[in-house]
Fold this protein.
Amino acid sequence: MYKYDNYDQAMVDARVEEFRDQTRRRIEGHLTDDQFKPLRLKNGLYLQLHAYMLRVAIPYGTFNSVQMRKLADIARRYDRGYGHFTTRQNIQYNWIKLEEAPDLLAELATVEMHAIQTSGESIRNVSADQYAGAAADEICDSRPWAEVIRQMTTFMPEFSYLPRKFKIALIASQEDRAALRWHDFAIRIVKNEAGETGFECYAGGGMGRTPILAVKVADFVPPTQILSYLEAVLRVWNRNARRDNIHKQRMKILVHELGEAEFIRQVEAEFAHILTLDHDFPQAEFDRVAAYFAPPAWETGLSDEIDRSDPDFALWVDSQVVAHKAPGYAIANISLKPVGGIPGDISAEQMDLVADLADKYSFGEIRATHAQNLVLPHVRKSDLPALWAELNAAGLGEANLDLVTDIIACPGLDYCSLANARSIPVAQKIAERFADPARQRDLGELKIKISGCINACGHHHAGHIGILGVDRKGTENYQLLLGGSGAEDASHAKIVGPGFDEAGIVDALERAVEHYRTVREPGERFLDTYRRVGMDGFKEAIYG
Amino acid sequence: MGNLIRLRDDAAADEPAVSLDSFLDQSNASAVRIEAGDDVRQLLPVLDRVRLVEVDFPKFRDGRGFSTASILREAGYKGEIRATGDVLVDLVAFMRRCGFDAFEPDVAIDPAVMESSLARYAEVYQSAADGRLPIWAKRHAQA
C-alpha cells in the first residue's frame, strides 16, 4: 500500500498543528462556536448528543496492521475501548473530548493517518472497491488512482467552501461493491478496444432527502486528465449551485435542475479550458504511486483445495470467502455484525486481534467495507481454517455476509444529534428475529439498511429492504422501503405505506420476508422477486 | 476601511467599486465589485480597464468567490483582487492560492494570526493561481 514521503507527512503534520491552534483559539474564546464549527468539521469532529465524535479517514478503505493497532490504542486512550466502522469505509470514535482531539490527531499522524475532510462541506475521503488489488474480476487495481485523487483533492484551494459535501467513489470491475452511482462523483475504470485505460465518469448521485442516482457524464476521460475533469465538475457546481437552502445544494440537485445535457455541456466547456492550465500530474507521478501498490509476494504453486470437513467452517467459507486473483489465495471477509451487536462496532481487543491476523495471514493488509465489515485481502486458502478458528474465538466468526443479519445501520439517536429515531436497537431486534443461521441462508442475499433520519447515513434508499426512522409527534416511527440497491443494478427503494413503531417494524419486515419466501422462484433473491412481482403483493402481506 | 490588508506593493485604487452591471455599462470605471452570484466571465472582455476587483463573501459558507478569483487569474488579470465581507482568517491561505491579494473583512483579522495562517503549509498538492510548485512537480524535479 501507499507510503507517505516527507511531503505527505509534512502536510498531515501541518494540519495537526493548525487544528491544535484552532482548538486553542476556541477554548480561549477567540473563536465563537459558530466560527469553530466549520473548522472542526473539516477535520472530522462532530458535536453529537453526548460528546464529540471524530471520524478518521481510511482512504479507499485500505489500511494495515500497524494502523489498526494505533486505532485500537486510540480507542483505549481517547474513547471507551471501541471504534465504529462507517458506511464510507472510515472509522469513528463517539466519546472524544475536544481538548484531547489535537493529541489524538498527532497520534494518527505517526501512522500516516488523518481526519482531513472527513466531514463538512468538503471533498470527502475517496471510497473504492474493498477488494481492489485482490479481486479476481477487476481490470486493474483502482487504489493508485484513488491515492492520486486523495492527494489532489486535499486542500484544493478553489473548493475550500463547497455548497455541500462531495463524495467520490472508484471501482475497476463490472460488479459494483462501492455503491458507485450513489456518489456525487464516481469513476469506473474501463479499457477501450485499443486496450487503453480510461475513466467512465458519473455525477450527481446522492441519498439524503432526495435520493438520486448519478448519471453517466463521460465515457472515457484519459486518466492523467482526471484532475482537470474533476476541477471542471467541481467548478460548475461551485459556481452554479444554490446557496440558499442547505437541502438543495448537493450536486445531484444541480444536475437535475440544469438537466443532464446542459450539465455535461458546461462541464466539457470548463474541462477544455482547465486542460490549458497545465494542472494535471504527469504519468510519472501516477507510476510512482502505483509502485507502492505492487502485489505482495504471493507464493506460487499453492493448492486451491479447502478442507471442508468441519461443517461450520464450510458454512463460513461459503459466506465470507471471495475469489482472489492469485491461485491458492482467497479474500476473507470478517463480519462486524454479530447477532445482537452494533453494526460496525469493534472493540480495541478485536482490533488488535485483526491486526495480528492480518500480519499472520494477509501480508499485514486490512480493508474496511462500506457495508461496515472488514476484509483480509490476501489469505492462503490453506490458512483459512486457522483464521476462522481464531476469528471465532474472538466473536468475529459470524457467517452472514450479505445475509439478512448483515445490516447496515447509522448510529441513530443513541449518538447522533441529527437523528429522529434510534437505529441500533432496530438492527439488533431484526438480527435476533432472524438469528437462526439456516433461516438466514434460506433467505439468501438480503440487504437491510437502516437510517435514523432523512439524511440517510444508513443508506436506507439503497436497501433491498430499507428502514427510515422518523419522528412522529414525539415518538419514534419507522417507515419500510423495498427495492433499493447499491450494486451495479442500483435503484432506490420505495416506501411501502404508513410507518410502524419499533416492535411493529420488525414484524412488518418479517411479513415482507415471508411473502418473498412464498412467491419466489428458485434461485431468486429478495430483490429479484420484488422487481418481478412489484409492490402490491408485498403491501398486502405487510398490512393485511 | 480600517480592516484592509493588502499584500501588494502598488497604491490602492482610490475610487469606489461599482457593481458588475454598472461597470459593464460605462467605460471610465476601474474598480468593480463582484457579488457571490455574479458571473465574473462577463468581465473578461474588458479586463484591461480593471484595476481592482472586490469579491464579496456574504457569509463564509459561500465559497463561490474562490472560483471567481481563480477565473480572473486564469484570464491573465494582474490587478488587485480583494476579498470583502465574511472573510475568515482560516480561509485566507486558500484565498491567497486562488489569487486574492487583499483582504477587507467585516471583522478585523489579527495580523499575527493571519501571518501564521498564510505560512502554515510549506507545500501544496495542486497548481493554482499563486503559481506555487505542487508536490508532484517537486517529486519529479528531484528525480
User: Anything to note?
Assistant: The longest helix of chain A spans residues 6-27. Residues 339 and 394 of chain A are 14 Å apart (CA to CA). Chain A has a mean pLDDT of 96.
